[in-house]
Amino acid sequence: MQRFSNSVMKNMNRHVLRDGPRVLTADRPCDVFINHRGIDTKKTFSGLLFQYLSNLDIKCFLDRKSMKPGDHLFDNINRAIHGCKVGVAVLSPRYCLSTYCLHELALMLETKKKVIPIFYDVVPSQLHIMCRGSSMAYSSRDLERYSWALEEVRNIVGLIFDPSRHDWSELLSNASSAVIKSLIDVEEEGWPRGISNVISEKPN
After folding, report:
1. pTM, entire model
2. Which residue intervals define the domain TIR in the entry (predicted)?
3. Which of 104, 110, 152, 187 is catalytic?
């Protein structure tokens, strides 16, 4: 994927920012939900992507960075997913060990959001449910739900990044370009997208 071109930025200004510079207020639905495993990528790629897109006046949701003391964690996360236009799933080595990551991914897909997978130091075939003992045992419903979500995301074309070989700035540029293109596509299709009757649940 190429770096930003003038035509891409003009399209973004026309479609995403057509009402002028946005004031990033807490009550405005987010444009992009960043689904990630914090211990793997919050201080590296996920944090950089959040800051980069925020500087373009694209409102992103990155868990605690997007909340204030007193906010209810799961209610705000579920609300942000339902309200977002595009989801970015940063799939990292310990991603599948997190019930919360799997719940967020499943909810994005259930509500039919456009999801951009970023395979960060993993390949799609490595993504599968992992249990670390009895405390990680899932109900049959959750196991089916999370397995389905991982199967779905494995079959979506995304970006593959090996931090030992690839260039960080190129990943950030490619990911940002993909997000902007997806936002333009969603707005041209007529947002809101994927408002469904799915009842969100807190992960067990």
Report:
1. 0.78
2. 28-157
3. 104
